[in-house]
Design brief:
This protein has 94 residues and is of the alpha+beta class. It has a single domain, classed as Translation Initiation Factor IF3 (2-Layer Sandwich), CATH 3.30.110.60. The chain is 43% helix and 21% strand. The chain contains four helices and four strands. Strands 1-2-4-3 form a four-stranded mixed beta sheet, with helices on both faces. Strand 3 (77-82) and strand 4 (85-89) form a beta hairpin.
């Protein structure tokens, strides 16, 4: 997993994505390999991504648990979980 975000970087990502709509929706198939590949692509391109999980996508688990699993698999930092939406940030590799 990547190193923890500073408060300033966390605030920057929240501000940048607060007005944006989620670019990835997770449905009843859950966090499939295709979804994880798309999250990886968007993180490589934009460094940050906003994801919404539909009620059918939770399948009996908590949103926070699902978000942390996805952040570990995508090697990114979990910025914020709000309702059924969460934000991920991954700095570009040098």
């Amino acid at each position: 997993m990547s190193k923890p975000l500073t408060a300033g970087k966390r605030r920057f990502v929240k501000r940048a994505l607060s007005k944006e709509r989620p670019t990835i929706l997770i449905g009843k198939s859950g966090a499939s390999d295709e979804i994880l590949k798309e999250i990886g692509k968007q993180l490589d391109k934009n460094k940050m991504v906003k994801i919404k999980v539909l009620k059918t996508g939770l399948a009996g688990c908590e949103i926070r648990q699902l978000a942390s699993e996805i952040s570990i698999k995508s090697e990114s930092s979990l910025v914020e979980v709000k309702g059924h939406t969460f934000m991920l940030y991954k700095p570009r590799q040098k």
